[in-house]
Amino acid sequence: MKLTLRQMEIFLNVVKSGHLTNVAKEMKLSQSAVSMSIKELENILGRPVFDRINKRLILNEVGRAFHKEITPLFKKLSDIEYEFKNSLNKGTIRVGASTTIVDYLMPPIICKYMNSYTDVKISLKEGNSAEICELIKEGSIDIGFIEGVISDHEIISERIGVDELIVVTADKSINDTYYIDSLANKKWVLREEGSGTREVFLDYIKKSIDPLNIFLELGHTESIKSILVNHSCLTCISKIAVQDELRDGRLHKVNIHNFECNRDFLMIYHKDKYHSGLFEKFSYFSKTMMMQMLNAR
């Protein structure tokens, strides 16, 4: 094999940037070295992979086919290099989780794992479900935990458990049993677009309500709870997220006829992700502990 990993890396960076100067600066190489690497790659393949248009390098038909084939291979090789630098109980694993999971499930899991394996470091990124999926596809995180449904061929998902969504409010006058459509004109506070909670709820009610009076959209569950306590609004939220507020009476569950809105908690990772010993051990630990926590609630 004449192609080198360095040539693949330079090729992929040039595709991303389109300018040799930018790639040379980012990779701390001379521009001539970057240019020579591209020329050598094209010589090995026997034909050009770029069109030179307006001082930019644009993938041609051959280049697009080559890029499609080489991207997952390079990603997997990069993963292997990264993971083999970490032993089973030493290294760093990058985790991403949606807001509900970060706030109410993930902290004890991470603390217990790091206390048990002191040489393992865990970085945690928070985002909505759509954002966590993008981080997985970019290779920015190793493993993700989200809610809802995944329909992306690049992502593998494993079901962990079921989360119950309920409608809550602080408004004492909303104290009867209702049909969901009779509440459509009330003021609703929901999570932002891309949120798994929002997506599941709106999909569940779409045959009964069109449209819902969305009064406010917020990016965090705690912000929604704060608004609810001080205003006459409703929201649909994970039951896990409002256990304290329900217990002390700051919020109450709204009784709704035939309302059974559930969503899955999922563990996700890229289909080309290399499964190191550290990855396998942490994913099994997290999945098992999260299942136990959900069953206990």
Automatic annotation (TrEMBL):
Residues 3-60 form the HTH lysR-type domain. The keyword DNA-binding applies. This is Transcriptional regulator, LysR family. The keyword Metal-binding does not apply. Transmembrane segments: none annotated. Belongs to the LysR transcriptional regulatory family. Keywords: DNA-binding, Transcription, Transcription regulation. Gene3D superfamilies: 3.40.190.290, Winged helix-like DNA-binding domain superfamily/Winged helix DNA-binding domain. GO terms for molecular function: DNA-binding transcription factor activity; transcription cis-regulatory region binding.
